[in-house]
Amino acid sequence: MNRLSLFLVASLIFGFVFLYAPIASVVVYSFNASRLVTVWAGFSLQWYGALFENEAIGRAARVSLQVALIAATGALGLGTLAAYGLVRYRRFAGRTLLAAMTTAPLVMPEIISGLSLLLLFVALEQATGWPQGRGIATIAIAHITLGIAFVAVIVEARLSAFDRSLEEAALDLGAGPVRVFLTITLPLIAPALAAGWLLAFTLSLDDLVIASFTAGPASTTLPMVIFSSVRLGVSPQINALATLILIVITVLVAGANRLLRVR
Amino acid sequence: MNTRRFGLIALPYAWLVLFFLSPLVIVIKISVANEAVAIPPYTPLFEGGRLHVTDANYLLLLSDSLYWKAYWGAIRYAAIATILTLLIGYPLAYGIARTPVRWRNLLLMAIILPFWTSFLIRVYAWIGLLKENGIVNHALLSVGLIDTPLRLIDNDFSVLLGLVYAYLPFMVLPLYAQLEKLDPALNEAAADLGARPLHIFWQVTLPLSLPGIAAGILLVFIPAVGEFVIPDLLGGPKTLMIGKILWDEFFTNHDWPTASALAIAMLVLLALPMGLMRRLLRGIA
Prior knowledge:
By secondary structure, chain A is mostly helical. Chain A contains eleven helices and no strands. Chain B has a single domain (about 65-285), classed as MetI-like (MetI-like fold, Orthogonal Bundle), CATH 1.10.3720.10.
């Protein structure tokens, strides 16, 4: 082994230890018997027990799941339409604007997205009476807007790589455009759709900043509960909650990764 | 334009105009309004048939050194964190690109996973590690390397560490995508011609990976400038970043016009890098 690759191996080890050691510390100390987060006092599941009895966290988890389900599904529908329009129709009035609006949320700082959407909701309520206050619906609208960008990027990539002669063949054989879309196009882009949905779902589940702006008093999400509790200090219950979230997200991401690779 | 085509695009188009574009216009509008004791807490743009516009909020940003410090602080933290991320991320990405193919997907997956794992939890993890009676100090004390706990949190070090940690995957992924495309035959050719490994790196690998470097720099710098969670949780009261000040203006002071003016100031700062990013994204697509 030459010196270069020795250096690269060391970089790989350093990089992955750096990425995973903090996460591992959260998981390990979630099983700690002691209330002190940093002193190991034996294995215990008590914080998981306490977690399941914590009603505030249970409520917030339900809000977060509802928002994420609505947001991922809405983003999937709208993002796919936007991607299809952008890939298949190269020329139409306002195409540049649509392309800009589907990629800009990817690089827009969350704090600006959150603030601007809240200001919109307040102005809309003043002008039209809708939305009445803020809650699950407004958080979901905000997350759909963010999710559209991620879904559109993934679906666009899949649609651009796709062999259109398959669709043309079906059209030549007399299938209608709707039938072609449902029986040829949809199955071929299905892995990208599933991956896009999962990514929009995890993004929504994880978002703190945009949700803090667009949530109402009765719609606290899980990240908002974690954040306010973390501001008061590290707690073993949050470690347990974090471990559960890590497991859920790992399963989802591994699933999305598999879907994107299997053709 | 035929109707089918119109029907397809109209829905996402209308959605994005309503929920992405128009909110930005409203931010501009409120940034030129006065603060008011009302619901919502700002003066209307039109009142009694007259237009009310003020530059007071922007003048406040220019005159109060707090905002200047926060603005500069965000640029400084984001820039240093971006450089550090590049220095750590480059060898990591290169290492992954050079491992045997069967390992690559696994390693890449291991980079992507933290990127999708809860951001908040990953920042939180560092509090437990770094605080005064935290895991790192505890370990160093028990080994006898130090006698008194080190001050590891609520300072520049912890903010930069948090930024580098949170955004490292953003740097590694585009770098890997670029480095993986390089043909190893180029290196072999350079070596056959007598170039030494370091020389090959400077003359061949580095120049060819520049698009990946540019994408990584932008992907880290842009969100780091607007960051709120990291300075809030890992930084002390002296940590000034524009995102944190905006948050405080809005949630603590309820000063919506100043928060809006700060948002516009942040957008102006990011306009150039965001424009470059869009250009790069289009190049990739």
